[in-house]
């Protein structure tokens, strides 16, 4: 989860989030190099005394400053396209979870099991026993090291189901079913929130995922049913 003074990404809990962080770092390096180069050229132009009154045009320099940015953009675009296709890929999911956005709470249905459905409301902050504005009464319980498919929709207005540490952000639109998948590679509790302004209590519909082993997940399903 996010903590005070943390300006970086949250620690990833899925391979997709790792790839997103790698792409961010890759793009940031290119931007830093470009910024330093352009700043150096501008400063040298300000302070040197070179003058050429007869230089009207130079096709070579124009060719260079057209081709170099194009090559730079290719170095950004190719990993970006690869990542977009990776995010859309769906590989034989073990479990399908359906998430329904309401004003202002989430409902969840485990479509592969009978009678496993519940509403998830934010709970009140109590003496540091939970996280303020982030904890819920009914958490999503999912097995780690398995491919999970999630179907997302809404009943009233547009919401957005977002869990940063998993690299998932999908809009929940009324009358439309959106789909994505993720793979949780470690146990833990992962927090998210609605990231689409959806009304007065938009800030008060958090998402909590509890990642456990497949054996404990089966026991949880049996006990729930």
From TrEMBL:
<dbReference type="GO" id="GO:0005743">
    <property type="term" value="C:mitochondrial inner membrane"/>
</dbReference>
<keyword id="KW-1278">Translocase</keyword>
<dbReference type="GO" id="GO:0005507">
    <property type="term" value="F:copper ion binding"/>
</dbReference>
<comment type="function">
    <text>Component of the cytochrome c oxidase, the last enzyme in the mitochondrial electron transport chain which drives oxidative phosphorylation. The respiratory chain contains 3 multisubunit complexes succinate dehydrogenase (complex II, CII), ubiquinol-cytochrome c oxidoreductase (cytochrome b-c1 complex, complex III, CIII) and cytochrome c oxidase (complex IV, CIV), that cooperate to transfer electrons derived from NADH and succinate to molecular oxygen, creating an electrochemical gradient over the inner membrane that drives transmembrane transport and the ATP synthase.</text>
</comment>
<dbReference type="InterPro" id="IPR034210">
    <property type="entry name" value="CcO_II_C"/>
</dbReference>
<dbReference type="InterPro" id="IPR036257">
    <property type="entry name" value="Cyt_c_oxidase_su2_TM_sf"/>
</dbReference>
<feature type="domain" description="Cytochrome oxidase subunit II transmembrane region profile">
    <location>
        <begin position="1"/>
        <end position="91"/>
    </location>
</feature>
<keyword id="KW-1133">Transmembrane helix</keyword>
<keyword id="KW-0679">Respiratory chain</keyword>
<dbReference type="InterPro" id="IPR011759">
    <property type="entry name" value="Cyt_c_oxidase_su2_TM_dom"/>
</dbReference>
<keyword id="KW-0249">Electron transport</keyword>
<comment type="similarity">
    <text>Belongs to the cytochrome c oxidase subunit 2 family.</text>
</comment>
<keyword id="KW-0496">Mitochondrion</keyword>
<dbReference type="InterPro" id="IPR045187">
    <property type="entry name" value="CcO_II"/>
</dbReference>
<keyword id="KW-0479">Metal-binding</keyword>
<dbReference type="GO" id="GO:0042773">
    <property type="term" value="P:ATP synthesis coupled electron transport"/>
</dbReference>
<keyword id="KW-0472">Membrane</keyword>
<feature type="domain" description="Cytochrome oxidase subunit II copper A binding">
    <location>
        <begin position="92"/>
        <end position="223"/>
    </location>
</feature>
<keyword id="KW-0813">Transport</keyword>
<protein>
    <recommendedName>
        <fullName>Cytochrome c oxidase subunit 2</fullName>
    </recommendedName>
</protein>
<dbReference type="InterPro" id="IPR002429">
    <property type="entry name" value="CcO_II-like_C"/>
</dbReference>
<keyword id="KW-0186">Copper</keyword>
<dbReference type="InterPro" id="IPR014222">
    <property type="entry name" value="Cyt_c_oxidase_su2"/>
</dbReference>
<comment type="subunit">
    <text>Component of the cytochrome c oxidase (complex IV, CIV), a multisubunit enzyme composed of a catalytic core of 3 subunits and several supernumerary subunits. The complex exists as a monomer or a dimer and forms supercomplexes (SCs) in the inner mitochondrial membrane with ubiquinol-cytochrome c oxidoreductase (cytochrome b-c1 complex, complex III, CIII).</text>
</comment>
<dbReference type="InterPro" id="IPR001505">
    <property type="entry name" value="Copper_CuA"/>
</dbReference>
<keyword id="KW-0999">Mitochondrion inner membrane</keyword>
<feature type="transmembrane region" description="Helical">
    <location>
        <begin position="20"/>
        <end position="42"/>
    </location>
</feature>
<dbReference type="Pfam" id="PF00116">
    <property type="entry name" value="COX2"/>
</dbReference>
<dbReference type="GO" id="GO:0004129">
    <property type="term" value="F:cytochrome-c oxidase activity"/>
</dbReference>
<keyword id="KW-0460">Magnesium</keyword>
<keyword id="KW-0812">Transmembrane</keyword>
<feature type="transmembrane region" description="Helical">
    <location>
        <begin position="63"/>
        <end position="87"/>
    </location>
</feature>
<dbReference type="Pfam" id="PF02790">
    <property type="entry name" value="COX2_TM"/>
</dbReference>
<dbReference type="InterPro" id="IPR008972">
    <property type="entry name" value="Cupredoxin"/>
</dbReference>
<dbReference type="GO" id="GO:0016491">
    <property type="term" value="F:oxidoreductase activity"/>
</dbReference>
């Amino acid at each position: 989860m996010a903590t005070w003074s943390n300006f970086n990404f949250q620690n990833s809990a899925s391979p997709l989030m790792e790839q997103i962080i790698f792409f961010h770092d890759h793009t940031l390096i290119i931007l830093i190099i470009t910024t330093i180069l352009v700043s150096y050229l501008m400063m040298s132009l300000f302070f040197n005394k070179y003058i050429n009154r007869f230089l009207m045009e130079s096709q070579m320099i124009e060719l260079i400053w057209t081709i170099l940015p194009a090559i730079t953009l290719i170095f950004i675009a190719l990993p970006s396209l690869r990542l977009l296709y990776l995010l859309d890929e769906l590989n034989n999911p073990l479990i399908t979870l359906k998430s329904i956005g309401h004003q202002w709470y989430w409902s969840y249905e485990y479509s592969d099991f009978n009678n496993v459905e519940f509403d998830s409301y934010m709970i009140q902050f109590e003496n540091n026993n939970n996280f303020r504005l982030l904890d819920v009464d009914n958490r999503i319980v999912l097995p780690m090291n398995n491919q999970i498919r999630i179907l997302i929709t809404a009943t009233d207005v547009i919401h957005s189901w977002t869990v940063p540490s998993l690299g998932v952000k999908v809009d929940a639109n009324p009358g439309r079913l959106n789909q994505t998948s993720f793979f949780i590679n470690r146990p833990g509790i992962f927090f998210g929130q609605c990231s689409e302004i959806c009304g007065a209590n938009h800030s008060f519909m958090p998402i909590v995922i509890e990642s456990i082993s497949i054996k404990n997940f089966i026991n949880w399903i049996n006990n729930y049913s």
